[in-house]
Specification:
This protein is mostly beta strands. The chain has one helix at about 360-365, and strands at about 5, 20-25, 35-40, 50-55, 65-70, 75-85, 90-95, 105, 120, 130-135, 140-145, 150-155, 160-165, 175-180, 190-195, 195-205, 205-215, 220-225, 235-240, 240-250, 255, 270-275, 285-290, 295-300, 310, 320, 320-330, 335-340, 350-355, 355-360, 375-380, 385-390, 395-400, 405-410, 420, 430-435, 440-445.
Length: about 450
């Protein structure tokens, strides 16, 4: 029986029954946010869980918005809000309520952290040389570490605590993506390995359960976004010269749509994928990285049908041996910029200029640009500018964002294969988690 319930059927202005959840913030709509997903879950993990997505359009095209929360029989609940832009998550925030007073969650343009130098928290945990992904949902924020074995990491009393995950499928892990596959506002996960079809894991509270496969063959890369603006996340997979769009029916069941996307002879060695709204029309574009071949892009069809059109002018046609792509706002203008991790060579940073990605590596990054295995971008220090942390085999730099939209080296991070920025201890500030040879290191300011 549901013990914690959202009783409002839709967002409203000025509701005042039971307690009121206000979703506030100064991010512009739709330039900074165009949709939100609201989750409410009993703090007793066997209790109820509600999640619903809302597009910020029409009468809802503004912040703040308010909803009513009814405790039912719950003594407390974890409430979280995911803010989306162009089909992708822009930021997530959450808090615990005991239903004693109204609650406000903010989605602000200035994402600040703490001042001071980062320091290691607790002991190393989880498998070595893992791929990392951040999952928000009932029970708070988890970091999934998936390698030869798999663990979900949460923070307790200044230590990383390992929770069980399903066993990874055969072969080396090639990609891990956390995404809300079933529409309940918590982040499920897609795990791709070299020896099997990608596995779909569903999150329920702090538990993940394997619920099926995506197709029947291994892939090299996967990315998630709401490509058709229907409120659920779709998937794009790739490998060799093949790209596949998987449309979501809203409940986590996927079907291919060959007419909407095809490699079409434009790719030969897909190694990485990224989805993001480059031109600001609300529809995500697709960028494809390849092994020793140029970047290639597709435009999200402007009508919002979820189809993709070739977009040769969107990315410079320079051959690169790409191992990873990260679309994130690196200069604070709400548009996604592209960080490209290149095998055996310095990383590249392409800045979004009205839908075209311009190589600004020399201007924006410390020189020489770092060799990298992965990069995470977000507001990690006490300034408003986006910061970054780089994982590399020799130890990557911590990068501080500046008022001129450049990155300055601030310090160094432990050697690692992957890195994420996540509020692992749910205190409102981002932490850095780096996957190293012995396990995952937690750094906090």
């Amino acid at each position: 029986m549901r013990s914690c319930l959202l009783v409002a059927a839709a967002l409203c202005a000025g509701c005042s029954d039971q307690i009121t959840l206000e979703i506030a913030g100064d991010r512009p709509v739709p330039q900074g946010l165009d949709a939100i997903c609201v989750g409410v879950a009993d703090t007793t993990l066997t209790g109820g869980h509600f999640g619903r997505a809302y597009r910020l359009e029409g009468a809802l095209a503004h912040l703040p918005q308010t909803l009513r929360l009814d405790a039912g029989s719950a003594s407390g609940a974890y409430v979280w809000v995911r803010g989306d832009r162009g089909g992708l998550t822009a930021l997530t925030t959450g808090a615990v309520t005991d239903f004693g007073s109204d609650l406000t969650l903010t989605l602000d343009r200035c994402a600040k952290g703490q001042a001071g130098a980062p320091a290691m928290q607790g002991a190393v945990a989880g498998p070595g040389a893992a791929h990392l992904a951040v999952s928000h949902g009932a029970g708070g924020t988890l970091v999934l570490a998936i390698g030869a074995t798999a663990s979900a990491l949460e923070a307790s009393n200044g230590q990383l605590v390992e929770l069980d995950l399903p066993a990874p499928r055969a072969g080396a892990v090639v990609a891990v993506v956390a995404a809300d596959l079933d529409g309940d506002c918590d982040d499920d996960v897609i795990v791709a390995t070299a020896g099997a079809a990608p596995a779909l894991w569903r999150r329920d509270g702090l538990t993940f359960t394997e619920v099926g496969s995506l197709g029947g063959s291994p892939i090299a890369a996967v990315a998630a976004a709401d490509v058709d603006r229907d409120g659920d996340l779709d998937l794009v997979t790739g490998g060799g010269g093949t790209l596949t769009l998987w449309r979501n029916d809203g409940g986590g069941t996927f079907a291919t749509d060959g007419a909407a996307l095809s490699g079409g002879g434009r790719v030969t060695a897909v190694s990485a994928l990224a989805l993001g709204d480059l031109d600001g029309d609300g529809n995500p574009e697709l960028v494809v990285g390849q092994a020793a071949a140029p970047l290639v892009a597709w435009l999200g069809e402007p009508g919002g049908t979820g189809s993709f059109l070739p977009a040769d002018a969107a990315v410079p046609p320079v051959p690169l041996d790409v191992t990873r792509l990260v679309l994130a706002d690196a200069d604070g203008d709400f548009d996604p910029d592209l960080a490209v991790i290149v095998k055996g060579a310095p990383m590249r940073l392409y800045v979004d200029r009205d839908g075209r990605l311009e190589d600004q590596s020399f201007v924006r990054l410390p020189q020489p640009a770092p060799l990298a295995a992965a990069i995470a971008i977000g507001g990690w220090d006490d300034g408003c500018e986006p910061d970054a942390i780089v994982a590399s085999a020799a130890g990557g730099p911590s990068l501080r964002g500046t008022a001129t939209s450049t990155f300055a080296s601030e310090g160094s991070a432990p050697p690692g294969t992957d890195v994420v920025l996540a509020d692992i201890d749910d205190d409102g500030d981002l932490d850095a988690l780096i996957a190293g040879a012995a396990g995952v290191v937690w750094l906090a300011r």
